[in-house]
Amino acid sequence: MLERDKVLVVQSDKTILLDTHHPQFEEVRKKIISFAELIKTPEHIYFYRITPISLWNSAANGYPLEEIINTLEKYKKYEIPKNVIEYINKNYNIYGKIILEKENDKLILNVIDEELKEKIKPIIEKFILSEKDNKWLIDEKDRGIIKTELVKHHIPVKDLAGFDTGSKLEIELRKNSLANKEFSLRYYQSEAVYSFSKWKEGSGIIILPCGAGKTIVAIGIIADIKEYTLIITTSNESVKQWKKEILDKTTLTENEVGEFTSQTKELKPITITTYNMIIHKKQKETSRNLNIFTNNNWGLIIYDEVHILPAPIFRMTTAIQSKRRLGLTATLVREDNLESEVFTLIGPKIYEYPWKMLEKEGWIAKASCYEIKVQFSEEQSSIYYAANQRTKFRLASENPEKLKVLEYLLNKHKENHILIIGHFLSQLEEISKRFDIPLITGETLTNDRHKIYEDFRKGKIKAICISRVGNFSIDLPLADVAIQVSGIFGSRQEEAQRLGRILRPDSGNAIFYTLISKDSVEEEFARKRQLFLIEQGYSYEIIESPKVATKQIEIPEVLLENII
Is the pLDDT of residue 172 over 60? Predict the structure, then answer.
């Protein structure tokens, strides 16, 4: 083996360490991503993990087992642990041993390994209608339940039963937008569209950071499939953004793109709705809008921000496995550990591009992250230490001393476009009133919310306060500074989404501040919140607030490369 080939280390816990400074880094990265999941991207080393799901994906896409082993052998620095080779063989080879297929309009479960067949029979026996030619006949409605039950035991189902064809839709991508700007898919967006179109099982998840154009990828997929499509997103504002992008980038007209919201209920070839709208219960009614899944002959169902999928949508999706499904997200991290549910019911991850590589290539803004530790006043400190644990979290989150630091940051960045983001409404209301900054919450009327967003996009106002409704699907390209004054305990997903609000390409260099009460439970939660972004290669510089508030130091404008 040549010295130059020694670029990776395989560890017994199934992680792979890849040297980012090695001349063969890019070559090896492209190979590894075919069978392992990227889990960390600090400055000098990329960390990958070989998982059952990553190996099933590899097998499903026809990536040879021999190529996986050969890649690790060729580029290893040290001997590969024996347990890793055994693990790869076991999980790769189990894929394809259980196949869902259709025969004469019947759904058949074919288990080609007798030992495995005996193992899974007790798990799914209640779903088996009959047995013929050593195959099990099952009901179409149990397609999703069977897949869910088996994957809990790390047993994947190769679903080749196909999908219902949706009503046909005439659609093409424009070469010039309605504003007469040249338009085409970026190379990684084209890669994502191609990955979805060639995916044998027909459904899956595309992971790209905020600002990288997940909506454009979805539009490319709609144009590729050319069938009626249902899009489910997070808010009425996001519904309007989706509609605007579709009309701007495709040949579809107003008559072909509908909104299904509390204000407008249109079912058109492309229908855009919200999760809340689908599961909303009207007073004195037991019915929900879940029937929207079957009201039109959809050929594709798109789940925007799929990582927040509510339980009722999970349940409904179990029953519509005959529809193509596309999930979009910046991170599959869920604090309830239901990533496996997303994998099973929406589909596996079929495309991902690292945040830091998109930043390096200029597709998303370069971001510097700062954690500012804010001390309690003597009075607040006494109240804090006498409180119970839950009350301590709220007291730390709403520490009044944070307002002094906030005032300094607002003055420092008065020429920037600032988002002040928080969890507690009383805190945000005080900030809004004290600094005369518009506030958007879940209670803000749609028209008022739309006007504030538009004024911010046009630069008429330089700062807005926003509650949790700002975590998802808001396109504010001018935003280049985010100040997080409070959050949901240790939510990694929320931290990633909030940083994502300032990663739009128009923002250039972005700055993300998190205000944390010093020597409080907030510090512990902050470590957990920051974990996902640190794994993506971001770093947080920690600054003591007295130096900020008294202007003893200036916060640097460049990102320091220390990993906390």
Answer: yes
Count of structural domains, the chain = 4
Q: Are strands 98-103 and 106-111 parallel, antiparallel or unpaired?
A: antiparallel
Residues 90 and 104 occupy one common structural domain: no
pLDDT over 90 (residue 127): yes
Token reading at 323: 């529809």
Q: Are 422 and 399 in contact (CB under 8 A)?
A: no
Q: How far apart are CA 203 and CA 327, in angstroms?
A: 8
| Sheet-wide strand order for 37-40 | 8-10, 15-19, 45-49, 37-40
539-563: average pLDDT = 54
**Position 368: which residue type?**
S
Distance CA 316, CA 320 (A): 7
DSSP 416: S
**pLDDT per residue over 153-163, tens digit each?**
989 888 888 88
- Quick one: 315 and 410 in the same domain? no
Neighbours of 211 (CB within 10 A): 25
**Are 212 and 336 in the same domain?**
yes
Q: Name the nearest CA neighbour of 497 among 509, 508, 484.
A: 484
Provide the token pair at 535. 């794994």
What is the H or E stretch that residue 482 is in? strand 481-484
Of the listed ranges 36-40, 280-284, 536-540, the least confidently predicted one is 280-284
Q: Are residues 37 and 146 in the same domain?
A: no
The Cα–Cα gap between 548 and 482 comes to: 17
Taking 70 as the threshold, does the pLDDT of residue 505 lie above it? Answer: no
| Block residue for tokens 């999941």 | 37
Same domain, residue pair 493 and 447: yes
Q: What is the CATH number of the domain that holds 425?
A: 3.40.50.300
When the pLDDT of each residue in the chain is averaged and rounded to a whole number, the result is 86
pLDDT of the residue at 111: 94
**343 and 410 part of one domain:** no
* CB half-sphere exposure, 51, CA atoms < 13 A: 15
Nearest to 504 by CA among 241, 209, 218: 209
In a domain, 172, yes or no: no
User: In this structure, are 314 and 198 located in the same domain?
Assistant: yes
| Tens of pLDDT, residues 229-245 | 999 998 888 999 999 99
Q: Which domain holds residue 61?
A: 3-94
The domain boundary residue, chosen from 56, 72, 94: 94
| 339 & 378 share domain | no
Q: Is 79 exposed, middle or buried (0-12, 13-18, 19+ CB in 10 A)?
A: exposed
- In this structure, what are the phi and psi dihedrals at residue 414, rounded to the nearest 5 degrees? -65, -20
pLDDT digits (tens, 9 = 90+) for 51-87: 888 898 788 778 899 999 999 999 999 999 999 999 9
Asked if 231 and 270 touch (Cβ cutoff 8 Å), the reply is yes
In this structure, is residue 182 part of a structural domain? no
Of the residues 353, 375, 409, which one is the last residue of a structural domain? Answer: 353
Residue 416 lies in a domain: yes
